[in-house]
Amino acid sequence: xxxxxxxxxxLRALEESPWGRPPLRGRSVRDEIRENLxxxxxxxxxxxxxxxxxxxxxLPQIVNALLARHDFILLGLRGQAKSRILRGLTGFLxxxxxxxxxxxVNDDPFGPxxxxxxxxxxxxxxxxxxxxxxxxxxxxxxxxxxxxxxADLIGDLDPIRAARGGHVLSDELTMHFGLLPRANRGIxxxxxxxDLAGKIQVGLFNIMQEGDVQLxxxxxxxxxxxxxxxxxxxxxxxxxxxxxxxLKDRIGSEIITHYPRSVELGMAITWQEAWTERDAxxxxxxxxxxxxxxxxRIAFEARGDKRVDRRSGVSQRLPISxxxxxxxxxxxxxxxxxxxxxxxxxxxxxxxxxSITGKLELEYEGELQGAEAIAKExxxxxxxxxxxxxxxxxxxERLDRIVAxxxxxxxxxxGGDERAGVAVKAFALxxxxxxxxxxxxxAEVGDQPVEVAACELALEALAAQKRISRSEExxxxxxxxxx
Length: 483
Known about the structure:
- By secondary structure, the protein is of the alpha/beta class.
- 39% of the residues are buried.
- The protein has a five-stranded parallel sheet with strand order 4-7-10-1-11. Strands 2-3 form a two-stranded antiparallel ribbon. It has a two-stranded antiparallel ribbon with strand order 5-6.
- It is 43% helix and 13% strand.
- It has helices at 11-15, 29-42, 58-67, 82-87, 115-124, 150-153, 159-165, 179-182, 198-209, 234-240, 245-249, 263-273, 289-303, 317-336, 346-351, 354-357, 364-369, 371-388, 396-407, 420-427, 433-439, 448-464; strands at residues 72-75, 96-100, 130-134, 139-143, 155-157, 175-177, 186-191, 212-215, 218-221, 226-232, 253-256, 284-285, 341-342, 468-471, 475-478.
- Strand 14 (468-471) and strand 15 (475-478) form a beta hairpin.
């Protein structure tokens, strides 16, 4: 596409360009998206960059809706990439769109909908100046809240504009346009649609279906050309019933999103989103695969825990925040010891508890136990799953010898800020421990920071099985048997 400086600047020049002839002339935004989407599919292009796990579920349904020129709603729990998907729709718009220069509603030079646009054409004719709007400026997003008004979405009469222009209030030129008219010939998205008041949904439905609305008793005709997209939480959408029936009925497609179906997929998403490449001059972060897996499994364990409110969900932001927090904890330890590399370990996941507790909506039983206690249990269970997947049939005897060492009265406490070399020497006191993590390929011999992470993983797994105990005061020790 040419740069804005090389695009037609007047209506006469526009008529002589490709935009002045079919198929570009008079094309609706839905047809524009459909044509560009068909071209992208035929060319084998990536349709939604950075969105993973929906290739066989959500994305084909979105593509079908766009090809059918439907408005659609994404229905899913928090942290399921709904907003990212909507913002990615701009990739299916043309790079530049011609409008009548100065128009607040992106008036089509060949069919303006506003009085301003029509008067400009009558006044200037072929010399009417043409403005150009980039695809990213054709996306308008609004978070639905109970205090949103018709004026916010549609517009309102502006007495000051009427006074300055010498217009009566009923004149369309006195109107201050809201978000929806300003999204004309583009995409308008509303997040959390059920939170929008019912009377506002009625106004939205009316402008969608009929193209008209009344402002302060004055009828205004606005035949908008807009693709409408919505998001909603299933609990709000179904249980509370806050979407009015006429609006719900006219949303062409309802598409249900979901959390990652596998740990590997969740790890890929978290790795993409987490801020792990820190500033220049900071210790270089090296994150073992086992730590990444434990972090992801924390979210998976939480989503299956009966004490966590499943209707609220456990956002993908949880493992992202935990990983970032764990890297920060390791970074702080590396700086304290003047090391050039920071390697997170299991102790750093406990340091990241604030990233877990704040993202868990608990049921009554969970409230009784407390978010912190549940978060610590989730870490131990995630460690157990990660460790158990790597065990072989011949490893049980080696684990028994590790447990027997603790049962003889030994205990092991290693501070979270302890140097890796010191921690490895302490772990070497436990029979079979270092040899086991080496044989399971959790850590290479001599890679002390990862050896510490792997040894902590093994002991956390045993603690989760209640074969040994773990406490902040004593560390890892034998389980106290009831007499």
